Amino acid sequence: MKFVHYIVSFLILVTMMNCKGVDSALEVTVYETSESGNALKKVNEFSTSENKIEIHLNPEKKFQTITGFGGSFTEASAHLLNKLSKENRKKILEAYFSENGANYSLTRTTIASCDFSLKNYTYAKVENDLALEHFTIEDDKDDIIPMILEAKAISKEGFNIIASPWSCPPWMKDNKSYVGGKLLPEYNDTFALYFSKYLEAYKKEGIDIWGVTVINEPHGNGNNWESTLFSPEEMTLFVQNHLGPKLEKDGWNAIKILGYDQNRAGLQEWVDAMYKDENTSKYFAGTAIHWYESTYEVFPEALQYAHNKAPNKHLIQTEACVDSEVPHWQDDAWYWKKEATDWGWDWASEQDKYLHPKYAPVNRYAEDIIGCLNNQVDGWVDWNMVLDRQGGPNWFKNWCVAPVIVDDKNDEVYFTPLYYVMSHFSKFMRPGAVKIGCEINNNDLKATAVQNPDNSIALVIFNPTEQSHSIEITVNNNKSEISIPAKALQTVVISDK
What we know:
Blueprint: H1 2-21, E1 28-34, E2 41-43, E3 53-65, E4 68-73, H2 75-83, H3 86-97, E5 106-111, H4 144-154, E6 160-165, H5 188-204, E7 211-213, H6 232-249, E8 256-263, H7 267-274, H8 278-281, E9 284-290, H9 300-309, E10 314-319, E11 322-323, H10 344-347, H11 361-373, E12 379-384, E13 386-388, E14 400-401, E15 404-407, E16 412-415, H12 417-426, E17 434-440, E18 446-451, E19 457-463, E20 469-475, E21 478-484, E22 488-494
Parallel strand pairs: 3-20, 4-5, 4-12, 5-6, 6-7, 7-8, 8-9, 9-10, 10-12, 13-15
Antiparallel strand pairs: 1-2, 1-22, 3-17, 11-14, 15-16, 17-18, 18-19, 19-22, 20-21
Helix pairs in contact: 2-4, 3-4, 5-6, 6-7, 7-9, 11-12
């Protein structure tokens, strides 16, 4: 009799297990940002329709491991925070770095000045100081360093920092200027030392740097602000023979050196040089890219080419912003409309102007991040975290938009829709997550998904259309039905049962 009882119990258990594995409901939590007014709001009421869009997720199909998402520490942002009340300063930093906020995990900062600094400056002010005995980071101690330290104190899990110089010290260049010019060969070793000195100085301030790029925008920027020109071969040789060995010798082996650091259209020639062979690729941990070549295209072919050239190296988006615009103050609707322009329109040739149409800032951010994740990019970093109502301050008057805009004269803060777009990714896709298979049977909507270290799945869906849609999500044999309204971004968190 006991034996029969065991058999019956076993059969019941097997039946229950099989039922759970076939057409079981997924446990999902949905967060939404929309033109209608939701701002990362948890939603649980969904409409239904007969024509469902299907999204199939496959956790067994694995792609890149996620490094993180975040924004940049600039002097412009840090200076503005210092002008706000303690309450609003804390409010902004907690919004970016706390678990309850965007929980940024990957950031960037500048090595000396950039176009979003208040003035031109270098850490090596004494000409021909080859040993850099007079090296100093004093210019960073009033604004940037306090901002980073306060963010560190708020962040529970911590965040990685990529540091980028816009220019080497002017006296090391052939034109002796902050803008344009090339690094003279006789200063290769001194510029490599400059990086080592920077890493040491910041560590003494309590700030560990995760990675560096060799130079921001080595093609230059039309000779407008700080820059140093490198060809792919020149940068590769500098890293191979000077920067890499110097950091290795000084004990900075863990520092990630990222090459390139400019627009995606130029990727192929750069990765061809960087990853030509073991000697050229040895010191490169990956490639850094920007998005300014087009408001229209994510350049998937270029991204895939770069990944295939070096599958085990990082591919990180290090800079993006709505450029050539003055921020629209407390006007959420503008960020959803195709009214923004970009700097590229000014410099693009007539035949390339189609790459720079009017665009909606929300659309551009959401579609680019999704497109990058679907094409092997493992990190995505925004530009300035905070700007004023003019889109500054900065010495060059190079106005642009940030996710958080402040009126420092009246101590007011405006979280634009872009802040919430960034949060949809940074908050729910954590470092160590793995991009997984994600198929959607609709070309108008965009989607991507990762599986986090805790085994939960974060699925992001963007609907730029004027219609709402019902969506059926399938993971293996388990399903759940939700809906997404017109002009909305959703993150669907699927728990690990």
